[in-house]
Amino acid sequence: MEERIRQRRALYTVLREWLDEKNLLEALQIFEDHFQGQPTIAVHEYLTRIAPLYRDRVDAKTLRRNLMQILVRRSAELEPDPLPLLQQLRAQQSTQELKIQGRQPTPEQQALHQLVSGMIRKLSLLQRKQLHISIAQQLKQHFVNGSYDALAQYLLTDNPLHLASFDDRALRTFFNLIYVAACEVLGPVSADRWFGGSIAQLRETDQVAGAALNRYL
Amino acid sequence: MKQLALLIGFLLLPANVLAADSPGAVDAVWVVTAAALVFFMQAGFALLESGMARSKNAVNVVMKNYMDVCVGSLVFWAVGFGLMFGVNESGFFGTTHLFPEFDEGWPWIFMLFQTMFAATSTTIASGAMAERTRYLGYLLGAMLITGLVYPIFGSWVWGGFFGGKGWLAELGFIDFAGSTVVHSVGAWCALAGIMVVGPRLGRFDPVTGQPRTIPGHNLGMVALGGFILWLAWFGFNAGSTLQANMNLGKIALNTHLAACAGATSTMLLQALLGRPVLLTLTVNGSIAGLVAITAGCATMNPGYAIVTGLVAGIIVVAGTRALELLLLDDAVGAIPVHGFAGVWGTIAAGLFFAEDPFNTQRVWVQAVGCVACFLWAFPLSYGMYWLLEKTVGLRASNLQQQRGLDYTEHHEIGYPEFEQLHLHKPLTP
To answer: Between residues B224 and A33, which one has the greater pLDDT?
Structure first.
């Protein structure tokens, strides 16, 4: 228990130099949810995961080095435990989640769902599994915490409600990440055919949805 | 009618009248015609590279070919020519004739011919880096290659047109029409470019590293491009005599035989290895033969020209595979064709030198020239492309690659009527 608190304080100490309060708490929350209790080496993966929060502000190598130095400092040199701040954030998020549940996807988001859902169904089980793994890796690099979880949930449950809280830009990125993952799993030629064919098919069968889809391409 | 009579009269002139010791009108006509043929290589490259790219990037590849000759020629006129051919006291670069002006006609003709060579060297990188390179970054790179990388190395071998001599020329380095000076320089720049820009999305399996073939969209264009390059190469090699003389026949014949041998050995090797005989690789084999014979086309006999071409064809097959094993994505095979075959051709020029074949001293000098070329062109262009990536951006984003560079860079589609890949928003009229 002592070690967990110490890790949290060390992270809080080093990350506050680079991140604003909002991003800092989000980064700490990711650590608490996914990396707490793991060996110190997992910190590397953690920093990769939260890269979108600090990108353009700091060199990842510098951040890693600083973190390693601070992890071995004496307890008195660390910032106080940020647990109360994290608990406060969680309380805010649960209120927000209740609001999101009441939100409905727009016709454009429905069109995107129609396309993605149809595309995924065309794949074999093995391909679907490989694609999910690859997309998860891509999502980690571009979305953090809540957004990442929501999109991962969307792919697993095939429920368009999860798309409702995203704007066009985020969904365009999401769609592109599926394309990148498809290129890696299926190969670029098959990925082009898969995407091109599915979009053409949707445009033919449902013109309104086909037109609505344009904003994500 | 009068013009036709003059033309017939000109063609009926005896050969000894055509051959002159100092540049005359006939030499001028020949070199300008050869320069036009070398310019025609750009059409060959455009067709070949565009045909090997996917349809969503076809316009982008052609635009890069079209514009690199334009910006490259302007830069070469302004600074490249002076650096390459200006008075070269140090042996390392020319120091005069920047923004050149001449009183006589011959230097203009020479400059025209050399400008076409510079454009050829520059355009090699466009194919290798195709389908994932931003247009602006590429063009800035092309300007730096034509203005700095190519002319400085060129001055080491061909420099001193207005006085002095390059240090490699002093050593006795032979590169008649530019296997190393033009093609290897271009290929090493291309190698640096593909290392900085990275492979196309999905080119290699992320788990096993196995290469995935990304077929071109129009193989007819590839073959036509190959034929055009072959035709233009007669101007490239035979034009390098800078004289209309009796050597032209042997040079042109060597050029042709090496190309034939290159294609034949590539085809046979594919068949012997039990692989499908691919058109793209076979065309590359013929071009490798052309690249390889470029250095020694004037100094070796036709039998050796065939050997040079045969080996070049084998090098292309092996070189293409070697790049794949190193996870380097050369979209059109430019590096094996222009780089590896260029090195072989340069060595072969020393090895099969007609007056004194198999002279190890000469081969050693040739090897020194090849190494010097790599050590100059590769690190410099790597640094240049790295800087471009960090500043203006060189690699196209994933979204741009999804949509295709025709749409994202030019807002034009190569095949609007036949488009099957709906990977971007429709173009608004």
So the answer is: B224
